[in-house]
Amino acid sequence: MHQAIIKTASVRVTSAFFQATLSGTISKYLPFLLSLLLLIAISSTSAQVYAQETIQFTAEQVANGEAIYKETCQICHGNRLSNGQFGTPLRGSFFSNNWKGKSLGELVQNTYEKMPPDNVMSMSMQQYAEVISFILSRNKIEPGDTALEADMDALNQMPLPWQ
């Protein structure tokens, strides 16, 4: 019976110790964790706002690009742009890291010169721009009122938002 009382007391003391330690640790690091979360949120938002200020395309271009994507690109890159069996992901961190620090012109030019692999340069530059509009819309860049033009000089001046 004495052993049971000692075990119960020991569990209570240990439990109280861990609660106090955990509580102290959380309260010690809580301001840091909240600051870190705020910084992440601001960074993500500023990248999207930055892209929104420089890259413009319309909802119509997104719709046209989606139709072209389904017909031409989906077979390799998948219906979610990230689940293709043969093509690299066109959304998410893989895509953004691949295009970090590059211009929209580089993305359009690369797509024009290399896609689809079995029929490169098979569409007009405007069609490629529409497919890129669709891809950008799936990477959290919202369409606006100004159409994305297939002017390579202008596109080369537009940085992609992933820094």
Structure in words:
The chain has helices spanning 2-54, 59-77, 93-98, 104-114, 125-137, 152-156. Helix content is 66%, strand content 0%. The protein is globular. The termini are far apart. The protein contains 6 helices and no strands. With 163 residues, the chain is mainly α.
Write the layout of secondary structure elements.
Layout: H1 2-54, H2 59-77, H3 93-98, H4 104-114, H5 125-137, H6 152-156
Q: What labels describe this entry?
A:
single chain; 163 residues; Cytochrome Bc1 Complex, Chain D, domain 2; mainly alpha; 2 domains
Concise description?
By secondary structure, this protein is mostly helical. It is built from 6 helices and no strands.
Number of strands: 0
Structurally, how many domains make up the residues?
Answer: 2
Give me the strand/helix succession: HHHHHH
What's the level 1 CATH class of the largest domain?
Mainly Alpha
Look at the structure and name the CATH superfamily of the largest domain: Cytochrome c-like domain
- CATH arch. level architecture of the largest domain: Orthogonal Bundle
Low-confidence stretches: 36-53
